[in-house]
Amino acid sequence: MQDIECRMETMHMGRMIHMLSHQLKRRNVLEELAPDEGLTGSQRHIMRFILLRTLHTDVYQKDIEEEFRIRKSTVTGILKLLEKNGFIRRESVQKDARLKRIVPTARAETLRPQIQEQLKRTEILLMEGIPEEEIRVWRSVMCRMFGNLVRAEKEALKANKDIKEEAGKDE
């Protein structure tokens, strides 16, 4: 293990983030959320998000699409299955009947304490032995890196759109 820690000192940032993400996923599998519930990995991640977010605010399909950066059709399929299996229900919103609020059912609510406890244990483990100032700096750097990637993605999408429009003019 010490060997990998030494190599990480000179490793590319993207690789390090990928490895950390992979370790978190492995940890989540080991602490599997209600394995007898029959949820897939994607369904578990989305249920975690719904259960944690609904503590503070309403959740809509668009929130899930943005949080996980996945397509509308993918989210629709997952939500349909979660609804069919009794984990969520969708309610119309008074101000706009087209909007459907996603609400956890009683079956899903039984998972919330387990999710919160797992999250708490993971956060404690991640920050173990790291001074608060370093954690603050890390959060700031991660936010900027994320912003850089989002900006670059927007620029690439715009460039691709411009190229397609130019190609369409030539035809």
UniProtKB/TrEMBL annotation:
Keyword Transcription regulation: yes
Keywords, sorted A to Z: DNA-binding, Transcription, Transcription regulation
Signal peptide residue numbers: none
PROSITE patterns named among the record's database cross-references: HTH_MARR_2 (PS50995)
Organism: Enterocloster alcoholdehydrogenati
PANTHER family the UniProt entry points to: TRANSCRIPTIONAL REGULATOR, MARR, TRANSCRIPTIONAL REPRESSOR OF EMRAB OPERON
Protein name (record): MarR family transcriptional regulator
InterPro entries assigned: HTH_MarR-typ (IPR000835), WH-like_DNA-bd_sf (IPR036388), WH_DNA-bd_sf (IPR036390)
Pfam families referenced in this protein's UniProt entry, alphabetically: MarR_2
Keyword check for Disulfide bond: no
Record domain HTH marR-type: where: 10-147
